[in-house]
Amino acid sequence: MTWSFSLGRFLGSELRVHVTFFLLLAWVGFAAYSRGGLPAVIENLIFVLALFACVVAHEFGHALMARRYGIKTPDITLLPIGGLARLERMPEKPMQEVWVALAGPAVNIVIWIILVALGAGMPLETMAQIDTTVPGLLNRLAYVNLLLAAFNMIPAFPMDGGRVFRALLCLKMDRVKATRIAAIAGQIVAVAFGFWGLSTGNAILVLIAVFVFVAANSESQDVAMRSVARRVLARDAMITEFHALSPSDTLATAAQAVIHTTQHEFPVLDDEGALLGFVTRGRLFAALAGETPRSDPATSVMETNIPRVQLTSGLEMVLETLHKGAPAIAVCTQTGKMVGYITRENIGELMVIRGR
Questions:
Q1: What are the tens digits of pLDDT across the range 143-178?
Q2: In what order do the strands lie in the sheet with 75-79?
Q3: Is the pLDDT of residue 188 over 90?
Q4: Is it the case that residue 192 has pLDDT exceeding 80?
Q5: Is residue 158 reached through a cis peptide bond, with omega within 30 degrees of 0 on the bond before it?
Q6: What percent helix, strand, coil does the chain show, rounded to 5?
Q7: 260 CB neighbour count, 10 Å cutoff
Q8: Is residue 169 a contact partner of residue 181, using CB atoms and an 8 Å limit?
Q9: Integer CA distances (angstroms), 295 to 248, 255, 302, 319, in order
Q10: 106-110, 131-135, 291-295: lowest mean pLDDT where?
Q11: Distance in angstroms (rounded) separating the CA atoms of residues 339 and 234
Q12: How far apart are CA 284 and CA 280, in angstroms?
């Protein structure tokens, strides 16, 4: 989501637009112009913008329902394939997840009812012309909102229907197993979407298929990782054998450390073993690829905003912090001495070792 920019805050969430969304507008405009000239371009762009306003309303349905259960939604991002509400966490009580998942499609149903009350209709004979301006703006919006509600309820995890499916499975089994089953079902549906999109030449459907397939696997792994994290302390997962840098080490010294170790991040410790920061491979390579002299201190590319936890801190809290973008979490004693650190990779290794 790094290629997105903010449109401002609304109802407690930041509304963002991904730059690829404008590629969709350009594509719609070009296709409309080749069919009906400038009037068709204007009407189709208005329709797409109105449609995505409905998508935003759909995502805010999720966000506002999640807020009832104490879950914040930091941002909502518009993509060419729809919207994405980034909840701080998913509710883990099955029925709460059901209501959060259903809130989005329910908004589309409400919009459809309002549009029908305003006079929208969708005669069967004009449904095949939904991608043209023939049916009229209100008719098209009403039909697509009904379609969005139905499409989102397909049991393809992590779509809304898939989340309802996972929540219902959680009533009979543990969350990790339920998520794994829902993710596999979602990936099967995604493959079907992909073949359907390729056979019909529908690029949007192919993109949705790829998103569903990847996101299902990613969330399944994340849930399994959190399950392990609840039962483990920071001291059980931390890396204790590592190469540390001193404040006097240069970029050249750090480069040698990269060659002679398998580490991706190097803690910089003072004489008493207290953490000053981390030099990551990414920052180091960026400096070496530029004009930065190799004799410069490694601290010049050091990342100092490193979270610290104690030996008895729960690993779930560590995982939450890693999700916020920290390259590593330092594990320190009460006196401030660093005795180890934790990365997302070694949490994943711990998960595999523990059989998850």
A1: 889 888 998 998 888 889 999 999 999 998 888 889
A2: 4-10, 13-18, 75-79, 82-86
A3: yes
A4: yes
A5: yes
A6: 60, 15, 25
A7: 9
A8: yes
A9: 10, 11, 15, 36
A10: 131-135
A11: 11
A12: 6
CB 63 within 8 A of CB 54: no
- Tens of pLDDT, residues 219-228: 888 887 777 7
CB atoms within 10 A of CB 234: 24
List the structure tokens of 255.
Answer: 């480069």
Q: For 6-24, give the secondary structure using H, E and C.
A: EEEEECCEEEEEECHHHHH
Residue 320 token pair: 């939450």
Report the phi/psi class of residue 8: left, alpha or beta, with left for phi > 0 and alpha for psi in -120 to 50.
left
How open is the CA angle 6-12-15, to the nearest 5 degrees? 20
DSSP 255: H
Q: What is the 3-state secondary structure (H, E, C) of 273-289?
A: CEEEEEEEHHHHHHHHH
pLDDT at residue 305, rounded to an integer:
87
Q: Which of 154, 209, 221 is nearest to 183 (CA)?
A: 221
Closest residue by Cα to residue 52 from 87, 88, 7: 7
Whether 142 and 121 have beta carbons less than 8 Å apart is answered as yes
Mean pLDDT of the chain: 85
User: What is the percentage of the chain residues whose pLDDT exceeds 90?
Assistant: 26
Residue 272 is encoded by which pair of tokens? Answer: 């008493």
- Decide the pairing of beta strands 308-310 and 329-332: parallel
DSSP string, 191-205: HHHHHHHHHHT-HHH
**Pick the residue with more confidence: 20 or 297?**
297
Q: Give the integer Cα–Cα distance in Å for 49 and 219.
A: 30
> What is the reported pTM?
0.70
Nearest-angstrom CA–CA distance, 339 and 123: 70
